[in-house]
């Protein structure tokens, strides 16, 4: 997933590659759980990775605050919808602060800037002749904010939420999605990598090939939404307004030069449950409004708990703070990124996270840092020697850096971290063989310790998108200047960068072992 070069025009023109990454915006009636955190941490790590490459990054997230579901929740709590969303949106802001998420903007769909952009975008679709008035009658799941076909239901209930659907009938405006079947297929053909992984691309293609029906895009049954500019009796259907957030935040309505500098070179990260909206409706909506469809749609699987999707209705949610209080922020981020290959479903369990914590963080990374600092203390008076240019680890490190860069670039954090841990394991193995703690101080001991310090420096750089605090702490304990995130890759990960002659700090274990 390379950054996009040369997209910027006008006063935003720049030769620096740009990386625009988004997450879906979260429904505020839910509380943030580790399924949402999974999406966030992936997007955050990719954003950090691109910053480390020196790219110009814009990372967007936010909350989806309209729709029946929200209006009903507010009513149930005896407050106005606005009061309700103000309070609940805050929970997401706080949850992401607690997970060290580095978003550049947080959009709320109730903000005036968003209403203006939605009205402008949808008016364009209307003016271009892609809407029409009709009567919609269908079975609706309020939790999904989506219509269901009779054939999809399980015992009359929504297949995702297991809750009853409702019969809805009203006069709506429709978007002529059916008119885009051919153009969408052409777009998929011309852009084979637009939707990834390929299994998810095939799923989207299957939906299109199965035939597209026009979709109802407005409601008269609620006032809680963005008013339709050409017919004020209607508000837009929540999904229709929500998708436009990706345009609002980059100046669609108020800064065309800025908008052109970021669009369409976006990377939308999304879960597999919202493929239809993002990979079918959204490109068609963009075409209908006369802008290019999004360039990259990256679809991840679900994080399951005991094989089930987390949801409020199932009451099996785990709050991110429950885990971070227990394991620490970076350990949770590491687990989310490392345990599940991008695109497949993962499973969360306390045994799983504990096992990974102990094996990868306590025994491998933490232990390496601790033993190197201890032996530098006993054999080198606490002053770290410089890296040995002839160390076997130099070649290991070069391969690891190349593999990690490739994996991050392809949006595969689990492979990037797997590669990084090869360097950690090889460095531990090198120490086991050389046993510097048993040897007399001298050039051989300095060479092996200097190389271990250099490997740790490179590891700190490579883990920084996943574990920013850990990275900074290793950097500090090695006596290095500045912050790892201010370094640039790949150049600063070349073997030989550890200067030597720095005081190496012995401190408490980074990841104390946990009982299993
Ligand atoms: N509001 C819509 C998105 C609109 S984007 C224009 C929505 N919100 S959501 O809160 O239900 O989901 C947001 C994201 O969280 C989705 O990508 C969804 O897949 C993800 N997840 C919610 N639960 C999840 C898991 N258990 N596991 C992984 N991701 C999950 O849909």
Describe the protein's architecture and organization.
This protein has two domains: 10-327, HUPs (Rossmann fold); 350-503, Isoleucyl-tRNA Synthetase, Domain 1 (Orthogonal Bundle), CATH 1.10.730.10. It contains 17 helices and 18 strands. It has helices spanning 34-52, 68-76, 81-98, 112-127, 181-190, 198-209, 238-243, 245-248, 256-262, 275-289, 320-327, 329-339, 350-379, 392-409, 413-434, 443-463, 468-477; strands at 18-22, 26-27, 56-64, 105-108, 131-141, 146-148, 166-175, 195-196, 215-216, 218-219, 235-236, 266-271, 296-300, 303-305, 308-309, 346-348, 383-384, 502-503. It is elongated.
Provide a quick synopsis of the model.
This protein is α/β, with parallel strands linked by helices. The protein has helices at 34-52, 68-76, 81-98, 112-127, 181-190, 198-209, 238-243, 245-248, 256-262, 275-289, 320-327, 329-339, 350-379, 392-409, 413-434, 443-463, 468-477; strands spanning 18-22, 26-27, 56-64, 105-108, 131-141, 146-148, 166-175, 195-196, 215-216, 218-219, 235-236, 266-271, 296-300, 303-305, 308-309, 346-348, 383-384, 502-503.
């Amino acid at each position: 997933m390379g950054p996009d070069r040369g997209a910027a025009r006008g006063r935003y023109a720049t030769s620096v590659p740009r990386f625009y990454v988004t997450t879906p915006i979260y429904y505020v009636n839910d509380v943030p759980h580790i399924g949402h955190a999974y999406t966030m941490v992936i997007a955050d790590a990719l954003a950090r990775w691109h910053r480390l490459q020196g790219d110009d990054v814009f990372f967007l997230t936010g909350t989806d605050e309209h729709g029946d579901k929200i209006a009903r929740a507010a009513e149930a709590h005896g407050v106005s919808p606005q009061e309700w969303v103000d309070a609940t949106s805050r929970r997401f802001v706080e949850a992401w602060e607690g997970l060290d998420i580095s978003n550049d903007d947080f959009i709320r769909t109730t903000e005036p800037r968003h209403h203006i952009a939605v009205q402008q975008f949808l008016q364009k679709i209307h003016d271009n002749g892609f809407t029409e008035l009709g009567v919609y009658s269908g079975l609706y799941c309020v939790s999904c904010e989506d219509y269901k076909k009779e054939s999809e239901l399980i015992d009359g209930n929504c297949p995702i939420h297991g809750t009853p659907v409702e019969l809805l009938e009203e006069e709506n405006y429709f978007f002529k999605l059916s008119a885009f079947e051919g153009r969408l297929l052409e777009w998929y053909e011309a852009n084979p990598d637009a939707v990834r992984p390929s299994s998810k691309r095939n799923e989207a293609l299957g939906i299109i090939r199965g035939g597209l029906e026009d979709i109802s895009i407005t409601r008269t049954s609620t006032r809680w939404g963005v008013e339709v500019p050409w017919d004020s009796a209607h508000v837009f259907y929540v999904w229709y307004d929500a998708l436009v957030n990706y345009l609002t935040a980059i100046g669609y309505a108020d800064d065309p030069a800025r908008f052109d500098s970021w669009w369409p070179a976006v990377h939308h990260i999304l879960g597999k449950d919202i493929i239809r909206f993002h990979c079918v409706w959204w490109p068609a909506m963009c075409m209908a409004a006369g802008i290019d469809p999004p360039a990259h749609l990256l679809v991840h699987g679900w994080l399951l708990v005991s094989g089930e999707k987390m949801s409020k209705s199932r009451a099996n949610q785990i709050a991110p703070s429950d885990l971070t209080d227990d394991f620490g922020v970076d350990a949770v981020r590491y687990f989310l990124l490392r345990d599940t290959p991008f695109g497949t479903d993962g499973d969360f369990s306390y045994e799983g996270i504990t096992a990974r914590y102990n094996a990868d963080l306590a025994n491998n990374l933490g232990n390496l840092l601790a033993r190197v600092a201890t032996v530098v203390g006993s054999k080198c008076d606490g002053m770290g020697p410089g890296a040995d240019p002839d160390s076997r680890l130099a070649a290991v490190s070069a391969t690891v850096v190349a593999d990690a860069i490739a994996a991050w670039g392809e949006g595969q954090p689990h492979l990037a971290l797997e590669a990084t841990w090869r360097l950690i394991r090889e460095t531990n193995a090198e120490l086991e063989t050389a046993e510097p703690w048993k040897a007399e101080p001298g050039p051989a001991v300095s060479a092996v310790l200097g190389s271990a310090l250099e490997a740790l420096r490179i590891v700190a750089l490579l883990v920084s998108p996943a574990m920013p605090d850990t990275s900074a702490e290793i950097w500090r304990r090695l006596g290095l200047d500045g912050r790892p995130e201010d370094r640039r890759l790949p150049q600063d990960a070349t073997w030989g960068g550890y200067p030597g002659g720095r005081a190496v700090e012995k401190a408490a274990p980074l990841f104390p072992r946990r009982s299993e």
